[in-house]
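Hey, quick one: can you model this chain's 3D structure?
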Amino acid sequence: MRVEVDVPSCVASGQCVMLAPDVFDQREEDGSVLLLDDTPPSELHDAVGESATMCPAQAIRLAES
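Sure thing. Here's the predicted structure for all 65 residues.
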């Protein structure tokens, strides 16, 4: 799995950080998504997938690596 984020689309809801804190964080200055790991290990795939689904701005995209 490869994770991509569209930072300009992010509305800083923080859903991704709550669901997958090893993969996502939020920038201090504006709360926008900060991608920590664009190729997370398989044990995090479910949480990352849920993050993409729950993102209100649909700013998270998943692709096969």
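One thing worth noting: The CA atoms of residues 17 and 24 lie 5 Å apart.
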